[in-house]
Amino acid sequence: MKTQKLTLTVVIVAILVVMAYVPNIPLGIVPLTIQNIGIMLAGALLGWRSGFLAVIVWLLLAAIGLPVLTGGHGGFPVFVSATSGYIWAYPVAALLIGLTITYLDRFNRTNFVTILLTILVFGVVLIDVSGAVGLHVVTHMPLPKALIFQLAFIPGDVIKAVIATIITIAMRRHFSVLRHA
């Protein structure tokens, strides 16, 4: 891994940690957070390998008990809590966002719309559906009800996807290492 790419990977891990301390908005069982912007950026900026690695390192820090998750949480219990579905989806989302953008780069098809659609599919839909499944498994909430519950997050998640896309486009213009072709 090149030094610049390694540095950017560490920066993304740091951003994920810092985002844990941005106050969340309580919405019942699951809070509205900005941490998933970091997940979106991990895949979009770093590509599938480094993006996946950054999220895994961050989750390992959480698993050993460091307070790096939303609200300063950490430790193994969060991996089996009502929000565990989101947490388990994070590395997969970063990987799939990175893979898709890398594929699009090969054909010079990366632009605002393709990056936004990629982030919406994997950074919003995948994470929210996984969150619903986790909510269903842990709290025994009926799956259809858990899926409907996720609709409250969609407007905020779409805004976060647009923000992540804007940041991705701007960063890719300034750092050639972020183009994956």
Automatic annotation (TrEMBL):
<protein>
    <recommendedName>
        <fullName>Biotin transporter</fullName>
    </recommendedName>
</protein>
<keyword id="KW-0813">Transport</keyword>
<keyword id="KW-1003">Cell membrane</keyword>
<keyword id="KW-0812">Transmembrane</keyword>
<feature type="transmembrane region" description="Helical">
    <location>
        <begin position="86"/>
        <end position="104"/>
    </location>
</feature>
<dbReference type="InterPro" id="IPR003784">
    <property type="entry name" value="BioY"/>
</dbReference>
<feature type="transmembrane region" description="Helical">
    <location>
        <begin position="111"/>
        <end position="135"/>
    </location>
</feature>
<feature type="transmembrane region" description="Helical">
    <location>
        <begin position="55"/>
        <end position="80"/>
    </location>
</feature>
<keyword id="KW-0472">Membrane</keyword>
<keyword id="KW-1133">Transmembrane helix</keyword>
<comment type="similarity">
    <text>Belongs to the BioY family.</text>
</comment>
<feature type="transmembrane region" description="Helical">
    <location>
        <begin position="147"/>
        <end position="171"/>
    </location>
</feature>
<dbReference type="Pfam" id="PF02632">
    <property type="entry name" value="BioY"/>
</dbReference>
